[in-house]
Amino acid sequence: MSYLPSPYKRFVDQHPELAKAYEKLALACHNAGPLPEATRRLVKLGIAIGQQSEGAVKSHARRALEEGATADEVRHTILLALTTVGFPAMIAASQWVEEVIEARKY
């Protein structure tokens, strides 16, 4: 991964064994099914939008783009959240994702 947020880096530094176990579990979950990589990243983006977590939305948008999802596919994922999480959450996620897209020039 090209970018790790500072809170996560701090967690890894303070709790290396827990971080290893967490990463192992995350990888096992990630590889447990048939979805293609970019699709898995878009699903995780949708979950992050539902959690209204700026850091997770930005992270999963960035990773989806790195795995081959297009900017339009990421934007569509955000629009799909509208009727589930509501307009304010969708608009916030849209802003966060546009910051990622602009920073990366996708």
UniProtKB/TrEMBL annotation:
This is Carboxymuconolactone decarboxylase-like domain-containing protein. Residues 16-99 form the Carboxymuconolactone decarboxylase-like domain. The lineage of its organism: Bacteria, Pseudomonadati, Thermodesulfobacteriota, Desulfuromonadia, Desulfuromonadales. It comes from the Bacteria. InterPro entries: AhpD-like, CMD-like.
